[in-house]
Design a protein that fits this description.
By secondary structure, this protein is mostly beta strands. It has 6 helices and 62 strands. The strands form 15 sheets. Strands 1, 2, 4, 7, 9, 13 and 14 form a 7-stranded antiparallel beta sheet that branches. Strands 3, 5, 6, 8, 10, 11 and 12 form a 7-stranded antiparallel beta sheet that branches. A 6-stranded mixed beta sheet has the order 25-39-38-37-36-35. The protein starts with a strand and ends with a strand.
């Protein structure tokens, strides 16, 4: 709805303020357009700004208060008619006046500067109104600048304007019963009752109704006549339920829906079985028998039909804008891509329009916006962002309701930010007044799904003059999915369209939006026609008319043409090669080749300028020169100066790229394996000529070497000293002098005590990088002790041991034994550096046996009882031949000489056996001839006294003696 107020041209100024009154007490009112009249005021024709500010509530008293108004809309008007001729201009606005409420309107031309164009009004206090809206000019005021004051406050101007509006709850008509328009009306459900209800803005309602009756044909014939042969073409959904009207001829008949249509699909046709008359894709090209039956009379007729698909596929092409260096392959699979655009600009008084080009070729998934400015009093400014598709969102509007007096902003707007827009508006620090990542006023997700390519428009408005932001920057960062030219009907490769050959594809039946073909699979192919373009006039490098052709299984063909516009890049679309200087990006390792652009690309880095994310500039070319600055053997810097030329416009730019080739790795040392050496038997420490090693470096020559031995106490593990060692760089036989390697000789160690010491080799290259390697040098005493024995020794047998299992035999009725300590046989054994331990054992004969005496000892028992069947350990035999700190001699050895072995073991500081390199204890031994003697005198023990009695016998033979105890 529109309310127009016409006035004759009698006066003008740079702007005016007026109130709009919503006369509807129950419905909100949306203002969608304000039309104003403007005239040139003596200056030349041109483009001038017309702006409309609004506020809820009267505008009276707020004409000079910028914070009390919100910019509802603005246009750039091309005003060509001279003064005093006037023209009408529409300013689209978005504003809602509450039910029964008032809104102030503030119209200003050319930012209120008053130098070129004026808005038109006359002095007339009579309001204009309709049933809903009143243009109330009574409180109107002339303004002589943007919120700059009121001119002639008593005149109350009546403006020439037209206001378009709509009520949020307009009168509504709705059908509440009966079939909807376009429905099928059947005789069997007849009659139908249709009911409508109307509701006005005050929620008052009324209804009306009517009926529809469906009548059958009058006087139908009872005899049925079928067409002999009927062609049936399936519809777009490739199904058909046959109706008697398609088969019967003549008539008049009754309602065709009352007849039964059946098919015979089984050869020979005509004798059944008869099935319902429903056709689908599987029936295309088939000929069937058909019959129609009147269920009321039983009458029938017969005929034949052939099923056909005469409808061509549906093919819809969508034109695309693609990057000039795109392969334009419709089957290209989407991948994640990043697009961005940036601009440096100044914020001046009034609106500022900043164009930010972003490359094509991606569908938007997420947008973030960087906004930086040194503008003073940031409460004055607001910003909107418009995509190439025309979608507009507000980033922010006048922080602190215009009251943020701080300077500068450094903000990222991100839908996923933790800080909200309300927090942004409430933030006002100092230089920058607002910094951080915030949610925008409107979600940036409004851009999701759109294409990136084109010019994005950032509109920054400075609501109050007098301060500017000369140093301002904006960047649009887009996460997206790459988009190819794609297929008609939104087909997706490898989902419902599959490549079968060069530029030839198969589309599965029922696929696409809209559906390409329901009856069969479709062969889809394309041919390209290239049309060269003048990039200076069209902004394109070429156009490609891609003609798509779809052919279904019935031979039906459909074509469409997709226009691909290959957009020409500008210098703003160039992504300069980044620095690899160890600051912005990591430096390049010296181990590779010289860092040409191709070498950098081979490392997965950007080596060339990129246009639309590719190292192919289309109409943009480049060349470069390198200046190399040496630092040390393996480190140098390259200043690569690129000259980039836009062949389309002739523009050019120069870009410096810094590449640092860095040797930050120390030399490689072929570290020796851990070593174990023995002490000198006289000094009890060890000096060792350390191993020479090959030292190499990928980039630099070796500068110097040195080393250190860290002495470790083997018992406390404390460091006992740090022993520096020198080093000499030398060569070696067969050394390739072109390679930066050499032989490092570290010389002889100081005399090191026993222990496991750490040897550290260090090498430094020409760039000051050092490397170390460590190995362990273990010093052990592997020198066996000196064994000194008595050559001949005599041992005397002692008395019997009642606790052993050596028993009397063979003239040794006493079973005497004796034990002799190993030290008895020592004649001054020693070890210069460590303690010793002595053991003694019998020496076996050459065949491994011992004397008959020893071999005959009890080999089962070693202590009484000596005749049981339970083995003891040790047995008497084992005891006799075992090594120990003493040895046992037996009576059965008396009169023989036995060879025994005295073994001298080296002990460590803990009293344990020292172990040699072969893993066995370190020892020495000597042999002694032992003569075994029996020096014990015999012992005679007389029996006890006895008493003898005599008694007389009566016998004649004499006396008989009787021993009495």
């Amino acid at each position: 709805m529109t309310l127009q107020q016409n006035v004759a041209f009698t006066n003008y100024w740079t702007g005016y303020s007026v109130d709009l009154n919503n006369l509807n007490a129950v419905q909100n009112m949306d203002i969608t357009n304000v039309n104003v009249q403007a005239s040139l005021a003596g200056n030349g024709a041109g483009v001038y700004s017309l702006r409309c500010y609004m506020r809820n509530g009267t505008g009276v008293g707020f004409e000079g208060n910028a914070a009390g108004w919100t910019l509802a809309g603005e246009i750039q008007a091309n005003i060509t008619a001279g003064f005093p001729t006037v023209l009408l201009y529409d300013i689209p606005v978005t504003w809602t006046i509450p039910a029964g409420g008032t809104a102030g309107v503030y119209i200003v031309a050319n930012n209120g500067a008053g130098t070129g164009v004026r808005v038109v009004a006359t002095i007339n206090n009579a309001p204009t109104q309709d049933a809903n809206l009143q243009i109330d000019n009574a409180p109107g005021r002339w303004v002589n600048g943007l919120f700059a004051g009121v001119a002639f406050p008593a005149e109350n101007p009546r403006p020439q304007m037209r206001v378009s509006y709509s009520l949020q709850n307009p009168t509504k008509l709705e059908q509440i019963a009966g079939p909807l328009p376009g429905s099928e009306f059947c005789k069997d459900q007849s009659p139908y009752t249709i009911i409508y209800r109307v509701t006005d803005g005050f929620n008052n309602t009324a209804t009306c109704s009517f009926t529809i009756a469906v009548a059958e044909y009058s006087n139908p014939v009872a005899t049925l006549v079928c067409n002999d042969f009927v062609y049936v073409s399936l519809d777009a959904d490739c199904t058909e339920e046959l109706n008697a009207d398609q088969i019967l001829e003549g008539g008049p008949y009754g309602c065709y829906d009352d007849y039964i249509v059946q098919l015979d699909k089984t050869p020979p046709y005509g004798n059944g079985p008869w099935v319902p008359g429903i056709l689908g894709p599987q029936d295309i090209g088939k000929t069937y028998a058909v019959q129609v039956i009147d269920p009321d009379t039983g009458n029938k007729c017969w005929g034949n039909l052939k099923v056909e698909d005469k409808l061509p596929p549906v093919l819809v092409c969508t034109d695309k804008i693609v990057a000039c260096n795109s392969l334009a392959d419709p089957a290209e699979l989407p991948v994640p891509v990043v697009k961005s655009g940036k601009a440096n600009f100044a914020i001046n008084d009034g609106p500022n329009v900043i164009n930010i080009p972003v490359g094509p070729g991606a569908t938007i998934n997420d947008v973030n916006v960087v906004f930086q400015t040194n503008h003073t009093w940031v409460g004055d400014i607001s910003a909107t962002l418009t995509s190439p598709a025309g979608t507009q969102i507000s980033l922010f509007g006048q922080p602190g309701a215009g009251g943020c007096t701080g300077d500068g902003m450094d903000v990222v707007f991100d839908d996923e930010a933790t800080l909200t827009q309300a927090q942004f508006l409430a933030t006002c620090g100092n230089n920058p007044a607002i910094a951080g990542t915030y949610q925008p006023a409107n979600p940036l997700s409004a851009f999701d799904g759109e294409s990136t390519g084109g010019t994005w428009v950032l509109s920054v408005t400075d609501g109050v003059g007098g301060d500017v932001g000369p140093v301002s920057f904006a960047q649009i960062n887009i996460q997206g999915t790459s988009e190819s030219p794609g297929f008609p009907n939104d087909l997706a490769i490898n989902v419902n369209v599959f490549q079968t050959g060069n530029q030839t594809y198969l589309v599965t039946a029922g696929s696409g939006s809209p559906t390409v073909e329901n009856c069969s699979d479709v062969t889809l192919s394309y041919q390209d026609a290239v049309i060269a373009q003048n990039c200076q006039t069209t902004g394109l490098t070429k156009k490609v008319n891609r003609k798509w052709t779809a052919i279904d299984a019935s031979g039906n063909t459909k074509t469409c043409v997709q226009v691909l516009s290959f957009i020409a890049p500008t210098l703003d679309d160039v992504t300069n090669p980044p620095n690899y200087d160890g600051v912005n990006n990591p430096a390049i390792s010296c181990t590779g080749s010289y860092p040409t652009p191709d070498v950098l690309e081979g490392l997965g880095l950007q080596g060339y300028p990129y246009v639309f994310d590719e190292p192919d500039g289309c109409t943009i070319g480049w060349t470069y020169d390198d200046a190399v600055i040496e630092v040390c053997d393996g480190t140098y810097k390259v200043r690569r100066q690129w000259v980039i030329i836009d062949w389309c416009t002739g523009g050019s730019l120069e870009v410096n790229q810094i590449i640092k080739v860095l040797d930050d790795q120390g030399p490689s040392i072929s570290c020796p394996a851990n070593l174990t050496i023995s002490t000198d038997p006289f000094t009890c420490c060890a000096q060792y000529n350390l191993p020479d090693v090959i030292i190499s470096d990928n980039c630099s020559r070796i500068n110097n070497i040195s080393g250190m031995i860290i002495g470790i106490d083997p018992f406390t593990f404390d460091t006992i000293g740090m022993f520096p060692i020198g080093g000499t760089l030398t060569s070696f036989p067969g050394n390739n002098l072109w390679n930066p390697d050499t032989l490092g000789a570290f010389g002889v160690t100081p005399c090191l005590p026993e222990g496991t010491h750490t040897v550290v080799y260090m090498a430094e290259d020409d760039c000051g990088n050092t490397s170390t390697c460590t190995f362990r040098l273990t010093v052990r005493d592997f020198v066996p002790p000196v064994a000194a024995c008595d050559e001949h020794t005599t041992v005397a047998i002692g008395i019997d041991d009642p606790y052993d299992c050596y028993e009397p035999a063979d003239g040794c009725d006493g079973a005497g034994v004796t034990w002799v300590k190993a030290t008895t046989f020592d004649d001054g054994s020693y070890d210069n550096c460590n303690n010793i331990k002595m053991t003694i054992r019998r020496m076996p004969e050459a065949d491994g046996t011992y004397s008959d005496c020893i071999d005959g000892l009890n080999s089962i028992n070693g202590h009484p009882p000596c005749d049981d069947f339970f083995p003891d350990f040790p047995t008497e035999f084992e005891r006799a031949i075992s090594e120990g700190d003493s040895i046992k001699f037996y009576c059965c050895e008396v009169g023989t000489s036995q060879t025994v072995v005295l073994r001298i073991y080296q002990l460590d500081a803990f009293g344990n056996f020292s172990i040699g390199p072969d893993g066995t204890p370190i020892f020495n031994e000597c042999m002694i001839e032992v003569e075994v003697q029996d020096k014990i005198k015999p012992a005679c023990v007389s029996p006890a006294n006895v008493t003898v009695e005599r008694e007389l016998s009566t016998r004649a033979s004499g006396l008989t003696a009787k021993l009495l105890s």
